[in-house]
Each structure stands twice: as C-alpha cells, then as structure tokens.
Amino acid sequence: MSLGEQIAKNLPYLRRYARALTGSQATGDAFVRATLEAALADADLKSSLEGGRVPLYKAFNKVWSSAYLEVPESEGGSRSHEDAATGRLRAITPLNRQALLLTTLEDFSMEEAGEIMGLGAGEVEALVQEAVEEIDRETATSVLIIEDEPLISMQLEDLVTALGHEICGTAATRSQAQQVVAERTPGLVLADIQLADGSSGLDAVDDILAIGSVPVIFITAYPERLLTGDRPEPTYLVTKPFQEQTVRAAISQALFFGSSRPVG
Known about the structure:
There is one protein chain. The chain has twelve helices and five strands. Helix 11 (201-211) links the parallel strand 3 (188-191) and strand 4 (216-220). The chain has three domains: 1-82, RNA polymerase sigma factor, region 2, helix turn helix motif (Rna Polymerase Sigma Factor, Chain: A, Orthogonal Bundle); 92-137; 142-258, Rossmann fold (3-Layer(aba) Sandwich), CATH 3.40.50.2300. With 264 residues, the protein is α/β, with parallel strands linked by helices. Helix 2 (25-41) crosses helix 4 (53-68) and helix 6 (94-103) packs across helix 7. It has a five-stranded parallel beta sheet with strand order 2-1-3-4-5, with helices on both faces. Helix content is 57%, strand content 9%.
C-alpha cells in the first residue's frame, strides 16, 4: 500500500479526532491540513508516516500542541458555542484531553497513545483518569436515545443514568423521536442511523436540530456512511459494537463542547 493510500485510509479517523479535540470541524480540518503540509515539507516526517496510524497521529499532535500554545484568549463580547468550548478546554489540561481521546474515541492502547504523545503508558493512564474526573463534573442533562435494538437501547439507558443524566425519552423510529421532542427538547441525543421502520436516524436528528442546537452522538455499525464528506460530518461518532468507556467519553466530550450552559 502506497503512503498516499495509507493516509487516505486513516484520514477520516484523524479528522474525527481533530474535531473532537478542537470542538470544530473547520478548525480540526485546518490542523489536519497543516499536518499534511508539514509532512510534505519534511522528508523525514513524510518517511515516518509510512509506519501507519500512530506516526500520523503523532505528527498531528505535534502540530496541534505547538499551535494551541499560541492561541490568544477571547476578550469580552458574547461567546459562541465554540468560544465557550475553547474556554472550558483551557480549564482542563490539554494533555489530559489528548490522552482521553486517543485511548477511547480512537481506541489506541496506552502504549500507542504514549508513543503519540511522547509519554510512558503509565503517564497516559494517569492523564486519562484525571480527564475523566474533570469532565464528569459536568452538570447532568436530559438524553434522548434513538435506537431500534431494544437491548442496545437498554444498555445505553443504564449507562446514561449511571453517569447521572436522565432519560427524556427513547425512540425506535423517526416519528417516535418527533413525539418525544414535541414534549421536551433533550440536552443530548444518542442516535443510530438505521431505524426500525426503515426511517433514518439522520433525518430524526435533522428534525431536532431544526428546533435548536443540541449535541448529537451517532452510534452505528456503519460509520463509513457518515464519514463521506458529502454532508457535515458528525463530531461524535461511536462504532458498534461499542465499549461503554468509549460512549462515556463521547458523552463527556459532547456535553463539554456542545453548549455554553447546562441543559436541564
């Protein structure tokens, strides 16, 4: 496999990581482009990328960490969701955030994450624990689960309530989701993309987003249907079968970046 093919294969997942890390698809993509440009300008860096996914993420993290330190603080005025997320991000050590995302959302081992970050596996594990503790201080919210498989829906309900959130409703179809939202707008949505009656979880989410800005986590066995570049791609995407730790991390991420104030 050529270097270009290797990068193309891993690029959707690097973009996902970049979006989750920065809180913005546009900003994340800008850092990905900067990483690829740096590789083209540096023969040694370009050669290292032949090692696969770990060197690619390592190159990205080096670019992001250097640029992150130069980002000026926002001053005065009203803050957008992205501005508010950036402010909250600064309240949590950047290394903690990277360690959490690499080992949960991106499913790297502690050793691989350590190689990416230039740390030992034990140091990465400690950073992950610190990040979880900091993020779990988020105020509880109400959650809508759009999932047509009863066992998975129940598993998600148990996980969400164990984290201190409440379930405002569950739906197996687009119409059921519409009924739930008509009574109460959720503070977070967990959604599959293929629903029981053949309807689309994407359409169900679009219905909700037409009402207001709500963080959404897609949980699907078909991630390739969302990572196409044909429509705005989801920041939070968990692949089935999932690990509960991955969903937990995605929920914390979505609430952290998703709004400037708690939703009750």
